[in-house]
Structures are given as structure tokens and as C-alpha cells.
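Issue 218. Parser rejects a valid record. Input:
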Amino acid sequence: MDRGTTPAVLVTGGAGYIGAHTAKALHELGFVPVVYDNLISGFREAVRWGPFVHGDIRDRAALGEAMETHGVKAVIHFAGLIEVGRSVARPDLFWDVNVAGTTCLLTVMRERGVGRLVFSSSAAVYGQGGRGALETIPEHAEKAPASPYGDTKLAAEWMIQAQCRAYGLSAVALRYFNAAGADPSGLIGEAHEPETHLIPLAIAAALGDGKPLTVFGQDFDTPDGTCLRDYIHVSDLAAAHVAALEADLPVGAFEAVNVGTGQGRSVTEVVETVGRAAGRAVPHSLGARRAGDPPSLVADPRRALELLRWAPRHSSIDEIVADALRWERNPCYGSGLRGSTGRRKSQIVV
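Output the parser choked on:
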């Protein structure tokens, strides 16, 4: 991407967890992040590093006005729905927001001459089967989503790729594994309503702010019997978006790139790490396996280094947990600040 004199980047869903961290990273590198968000699951308080536009990803007129008003040169697209369970109950809503919304965005980009897109995709496009328990997953692995959420992410990738070929758009789809942690400043961090992610749940249990944790399954084909996941620090993930934005891509190119560390961490290892960092054991019980839980989901991250010149710098499990714990303990920005609705005033992934 040529920065030019006004390096404005539209960040859809930029009031959410990963979007807010990416807006901060863009600002620190001299870009102008223009956050576009409907605030259904994001928070206005998260918009600290550039202008804010309140709008829905399916609103063609509002998108066009935002791009024209701010001189947008590129788009980083986070806006969408992510709850896997909800996608099973409401697949129509997920296809409308995640697929039709992406189509709307692509149309407006073409009309406004915006030629670079970075898309927030997911490891959910790979599904659960066809691999050995400890194998890493390359980008060319079989795509077999196990939920409507994963289906919509893969469909959006296909649509973006087709428009790259047809209209000369250049795009990178980043397939995240397990985003975790918080900005070291403590200003922004991870929170969901309801919370479903292991690290914040374990921290809440250790601090007495949440229910005791349940560890689902101890008989997987893994070194300690619990599931392995690839945790990537949200600051590293934000840096990957900037790297994708600046990657040297020819006109019409589409690239799908894993964002992970290549190293799996077990549930037991995470629980023990949280306990050490918090200075108290994580209250937990043992439960049966959950249906559909794969034993291991770990990225093969070599393509990111090759294409984007990106590698994780802050994604040791100790650093992830330490930053997440600092966020949770911050009385101004973590679990101590709640809005009038009772929802935590922090950044939710959108």
C-alpha cells in the first residue's frame, strides 16, 4: 500500500477487541485508523486513535460516505458475527452480516477506487478432521468448516478472491487461531458477553470474579490429555494486520495466511500458567469431552514469515497471561468498569 499524504485506513469493527488493538498499531505507525462500527458488540470507549463513524457493514451509503469523507486508501475488515453456537441457531443472520455485509463492503470499495483489503478470517475454515493429533495446519489444508460461522468466513474468502480476479482488488485473508492477551498498557483488552475463552475465564476464576473453570476432557491424544490450542497475542495479531496492509502484492492478488505461533499449549498448561501469574490456583473441575472438540488446532505459520515478513514477538504463554491479567486487574479498564447495562465496558470481538 502506498501511504501517500493521507494514509487513512477504514477499520470496520474497529471498536471491538482485535479491531481496537489494530487501530492502535496503525496509529503508532503513522496511519489514520477510521473506525467504522455499529457498536452492537463493540464500545465507543475503544475508539481512541482516530475518527469514528457509526454505521452498519450492510449500509452501502454510510460506507461510501465514510470512505469519501476521510480519503480512505485501504480497508481492514473485522466487522461480523463470531459466536459459533449462535451461528448454529441463526445461520441466516450470520450469512446476512458476514457474507452479504462483506459483499456490500467490496462493492463500495470498487465504486470508491479502494484497492487493498485485509480480511479477518479464521482457523474455523479448516474444521476439525483429517489431521493427526499433533500436526500443524498449513493454508492448503482441507477446508471443512464445522459450523455456519466457519462456512461464512470461507464463503467471504471465496468472494474476496473472485473480486480480486475480476476487479483488480488486492487482498490478504488472515486466518487467526486463538487470539488472546491485552495491550501491555492496560488500556484495552479482551472481554466477551458472555465470556467463552479459556484465558479470561481462568483469570476470572483465579481472581474470584467468575465461576470455577471446567476442563473438558483429559483423554485426548495429546501429551497431557487435554486439548492443544495455538495462542497468539493480540498485539502480534494487530502487527500482522499492518504487515498484510503493507505487503507487496500485485494487482488482483489474493493471499490466505495463517496467524499463529506453530506451538500448541494445553488447557492444563494454560491453567497452571494463570495460577502462577495470579499467585493462587485456578479453581476448576474436570468434565467430559465436549462434542466436536478436536484434540489439537495449531497453525503452520511459515507463510506469514515468507509473505508478510511477520513473526510473533509477544506470544509466549507467560506474556499473554501476564498482559491479560494486568488488564483484568486494572480498576479503570478491566473487570472493575461496568456500564449501566452491567456489560463490561471493554472491547468485545466483533
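Fixed in the parser; the record now loads. The longest strand covers residues 116-122.
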